[in-house]
Amino acid sequence: MAGQIESKLAALGITLPAAPAPVANYVPYTISGNLLIISGQIPLVDGKVACTGKLGAGVSNEAAKEAARTCVINVLAQAKAALGDLDRVTKVLRLGGFMACAPEFTQHAAVMNGASDFAVEVFGDKGRHARSTIGVPSLPMDATVEVEAMFEFA
Known about the structure:
- The chain has helices spanning about 5-10, 60-85, 110-125; strands at about 30, 35-40, 45, 50, 90-100, 130-135, 145-154.
- With about 150 residues, it is α+β, with helices and mostly antiparallel strands.
- The protein has a 5-stranded mixed β-sheet. The protein has a two-stranded antiparallel sheet with strand order 3-4.
- Helix 2 (about 60-85) packs across helix 3.
- The two termini are about 20 Å apart.
């Protein structure tokens, strides 16, 4: 039986995918005490990167904002794999966003709102979080966006 968070996702038309496997020498998540840290997730959909290229050089802010949301869906898939039940999450503590972009790009915050808005939509007030947004010259598999996360859980 699905919990409240998975029911909320279903109401939004979202079924969590299987947690993506790491593409290099790292673990997808780690737990320390009551903290769950999720490694950076790119916007994989059915094994393919849904948004590639650079912001400010061909990729629209709207496409990247949607990709950031997709990254959080993959973050939640990892959280479910780690915890078994997303209702165990008591607080989204932090999201970190990385955007592949041209040097003159400055709209990082607007793009990262795709991830932040989704976290609040799914978790309500316990989805409000600290965050960082960082522009980089490239990301794995030519992804436009990557999002990492830290949760508190019971």
